[in-house]
Specification:
Layout lengths: L3 E5 L2 E3 H8 L3 H10 L9 E3 H10 L4 E5 L20 E2 L3 E6 L5 H12 L14 E6 L2 E7 L4 H8 L7 E7 L6 H12 L3 E7 L8 H12 L11 E4 L8 H15 L2 E2 L6 E10 L3 E10 L7 E4 L2 E9 L14 E7 L8 E5 L2 H20 L5 H9 L5 E9 L2 H11 L8 E10 L4 H10 L2 E5 L5 H10 L3 E4 L2 H15 L3 E18 L3 E14 L3 E6 L2 E13 L2 E2 L2 E3 L3 E7 L11 E10 L5
Parallel strand pairs: 1-4, 6-8, 6-9, 9-10, 10-11, 19-20, 19-21, 21-22
Antiparallel strand pairs: 2-3, 5-12, 7-8, 13-14, 13-18, 14-17, 15-16, 15-18, 16-17, 23-24, 23-30, 24-28, 24-29, 25-26, 25-30, 26-27, 26-29
Helix pairs in contact: 1-2, 3-10, 12-13
Amino acid sequence: MAEKVIVIANSITVGELADTLNLPVTTLVGELFKNGIAATINQRIDAETAQIIVEELGLDVAIEQKQTTGVASTARVSHQVTENAVVRPPIVAVMGHVDHGKTSLLDAILDTKTAEGEAGGITQHISAYQTEKNQRTMTLLDTPGHEAFAALRQHGASLTDVVIIVVAADDGVKPQTIEAIRFARSANAKMIVAINKIDKDTANAQLVKTQLATEYDMNPEEWGGDTIMIEVSAKTGQGIDKLLDMVLLVADLEDLRADIDVPAEGLVIEAHMEQGRGSVVGLLVEHGELRPGQLLVAGTSYGKVRTLSNFLAKPLKVAGPSTPVTVTGFKELPKFGDTFIVAPSEKQARQMVEAARAEREREAAQSNVTGADLLKMMSQKHESQEFKVIVKADVQGSLTSVIDSLKLVETGGEVTLRIIGSGVGNISENDIRLASDEKTIVYGFNVDLPPAVKRLAARDKVQVRIFNVIYQLLDDARQSMSNLLAPEVVETEIGSLTIKGVFRTLKDAAIVGGEVTSGKVVADVMARVKRGDEQLGEVEVTSVQRQQQEAKEVFEGELCGLNLRTEKKLVMNEGDTLEFFTRKLVERSIG
């Protein structure tokens, strides 16, 4: 026999699902409780959660979510290019230590390579621009001190093709250099190392190559490795042509292509309000061709493209793949990292925005009982949770002490602490961006949080915690790890009663009387209904009466009447037993 299919909308209550499956509500509630979730008969659960529950119960049932018709989604979907796809410009992120000449290198590229000989693109609002080499275009992103790369990284960095790591020849590998390498690797982007400042007397490019090869597994091509390293001077211009040639070579090897005969889509890389212009939004086109007058939807915002311009503020009639543009016309500011798509009509654009807004509200409202959360809690029974941190300290000795001490925090194997980044120096924007993607806590020991970094952390909702006493830092980590432990379901027995009479039975309520045989009876507790050794179901005690008067509690040997809230189809008889108990979730802590 084929499995039964149940089609639901966004969610369904536990009671409704029990009726549909012809099961007692207590069965479903109990299954949720087994996995650490306190659910009631009226608790709404999503389709994924419902499917998990029926599978746990061994039922041959498939739960499907009703699809909303006529409303498209702006959720990011991997676009598979067609055979008609055309070659697109590579998208290049330039990263490096703050003092290693990244800005100077960008200025040098723009001074000599920008179309029409105009420089200053680096100061444009979009912080993304284009340059030409051998009549070929490439797109440059000013990173990591800008929202663009964070947005790209949050979406898998699928739009970043090449990362240029800038290292000063007179200074070598520094903490931010390491962060840039980690950033690029996490983005799965091809890396080219630009060894800058070779014009200086103290320059030692060979030392830089040795550091990268021996400590970070980046072997130069001339040493038989696979990492392209180019010696350059932003001051004199030496090596810049070769650097750009290597970017184009990598692009050729990757065979970068995009479709242009499809509706435009891409990523929001920045957005702000300007007096007289309204919402000004920076976009990076991934596929298709963007034109003025088109209706765009990005997250919970939409609007008609009123103006379309390039990074030099020059009007455009069309913008193709890999092109950074600035548009006006959005009714509200979209968020950094939102994907944008073209809507066929304003009516459909409104529907898409309303659907996206409703989805976000639903996710927020049901965040306690989503399928993902249930799966996480279920996996906790078998797998260790991870507590991810980034650690920054004032000196290397302190950093080593903090890291070694953190590794000694034990949780019995249920929570594993993983340090995904560390370094000496103040907390940086790279730390915040890495943490925003990994949902990681940034710990600082005897370091500062610069104002600009603090604002970025507040915007991206990244937790930064700075301490000057090591045991306070360890106590905080211990408490944070305790919060990841699955709560324990605790039931406390209160008493029992033998039913002497059933006076009234309604659809979901009943009035019974009986004698307390052990403990006591109070209102607002649960009770198991048992007939011999068989459990018939569970009820809730709404009120207790003794001698026709409301009573707070009734003790062993006394008679009383009870008002009960019952499950549907639950029938109680004289001689049945009620076992009273409380049930609650108790947070656990690491000893």
